[in-house]
């Protein structure tokens, strides 16, 4: 029996159990929103930096970054495009799992393609990877466009809402 179920069955803790069971889905959604906004900001600013000085970006992709399977100019376009589009989806919670998964893959490619990555930078990438994996696995939460759209669709077709994050 889980802790919330035990609280509900105990007459002294029942009100606390009810309160926690009502707060928990929203607390999870606030946490997921924080993750989404933080990581989206990191990647979007990186994309803006790349687009501001395109010549330097092309030079970096040619000389420094060794992206597997792609020519440097195409890797630069895909990388910059991904860093500008996917964070917007992630921040809005619009196809949030897709945005998180796409940035997760980009994060891995960034680590693999830059052999001289410093330990502190690697730790940042690991942290972002964990945050992105969390959103990809649990969804965007109730504070997202995904949730709003799914809720409207569920109501339209007569399905009961679940507590699961979208």
UniProtKB/TrEMBL annotation:
Domain of life of the organism encoding this protein: Bacteria
Membrane topology: Multi-pass membrane protein
Chief location: membrane
Pfam families registered for this protein in UniProt: DoxX (PF07681)
Segments crossing the lipid bilayer: 26-48, 69-92, 98-122
Compartmental location: Cell membrane
Family recorded in the similarity comment: Belongs to the DoxX family.
Descriptive protein name: DoxX family protein
């Amino acid at each position: 029996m889980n802790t919330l179920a035990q609280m509900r069955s105990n007459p002294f803790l029942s009100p606390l159990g009810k309160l926690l069971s009502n707060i928990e889905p929203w607390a999870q959604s606030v946490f997921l929103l924080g993750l989404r906004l933080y990581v989206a900001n990191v990647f979007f600013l990186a994309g803006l930096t790349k687009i501001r000085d395109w010549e330097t970006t092309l030079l970096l992709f040619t000389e420094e970054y060794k992206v597997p399977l792609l020519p440097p100019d195409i890797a630069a376009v895909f990388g910059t495009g991904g860093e500008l589009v996917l964070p917007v989806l992630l921040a809005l919670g619009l196809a949030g799992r897709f945005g998180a998964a796409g940035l997760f893959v980009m994060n891995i490619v960034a680590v693999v393609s830059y052999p001289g990555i410093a330990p502190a930078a690697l730790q940042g990438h690991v942290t972002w990877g964990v945050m992105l994996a969390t959103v990809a696995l649990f969804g965007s939460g109730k504070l997202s466009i995904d949730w709003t759209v799914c809720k409207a669709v569920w109501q339209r077709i007569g399905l009961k809402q679940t507590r699961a994050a979208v």
